[in-house]
Amino acid sequence: MGFASHLGKRPRIEVQLKCSAVCEEYEYDQEYRFPLKIKNYDDLRGESVIPRFLVLVVVPTDIRDWISFSTEQLTLRKAAFWISLADMGETENTSTVQVSIPKSNLLTPETFRELLTLPVPS
What we know:
Blueprint: E1 14-20, E2 27-28, E3 31-37, H1 38-44, E4 52-58, E5 67-69, E6 74-76, E7 79-83, E8 96-102, H2 109-116
Parallel strand pairs: 1-4
Antiparallel strand pairs: 2-3, 3-8, 4-7, 5-6
């Protein structure tokens, strides 16, 4: 699959992938709230030559429901959501930061392609 972006034919992003079955307890109206360790928060915020994103994979509580596969298909359950922390400031927290991820930021093949074509901050 080739397509052009601001980086030419080899677009690149960096992703911090987190998985949670219990983030539903942090589920509010239109967002998920996820406790992100300060180190990870600091790694993702601020300007970068390569765009960086936090991706939260929300999975069912029962681990047996996370994935199913056969020779015909691979099914992962539930969904993944993304957010950029590039514009976030420093925090006085010492262990975690509660990150709000809009449910509208559903990671799909189309949104993934859009993330790859975002302009690099100058």
